[in-house]
Amino acid sequence: MKPVPHGAGGPRRWLARPVLSAAIAVAWLLLQGSLAPVHWLWAAGLALLLPWLAHDFIDAPSAAPRRAGLVLLLAARVLLDIVLANLAVARIVLDLRRAPQPAWLRVRHTLEDPRAVALLATIITMTPGTVSSVIDEERREILVHALDAPDPQALVAAILQRYAQPLKEIFP
To answer: Which of 8, 106, 141, 152 is the S-S candidate for 60 at Cβ 3.0 to 4.6 Å?
Structure first.
């Protein structure tokens, strides 16, 4: 009897991704810093449950990024921007003479893939000084709060150019 597909990624199976499950278990044990039996049980439970829950996200037909070079470039860009944004936020906090100019921004995007939209919102939130607060799927926009945005339109343009455009190429 053929299994009935579930969602975009086909049927869910336990241990469908053994390497991912092993990585989750090892990461859990390393984070706990202990090899106590209770941590082994948690590691096993998480290693089984997390890939099973993320099945539709991981195993969707277009889940594999098309261009590994773009993925690495985007990751490097995000890491650099996180470091630079940390320095900028520290400068704002430590310089009492300069008041930040907070703003709410509407980042209108053209991303089709919901995973790309979720990654864009995650990148925005991971970067200190900005927080994505609402993803409006119908309007295709993300509402973002910026700690300091003297030129809000320039910040929106930078977000779209630095993050949304590579995500559009990675998830066509």
So the answer is: 8
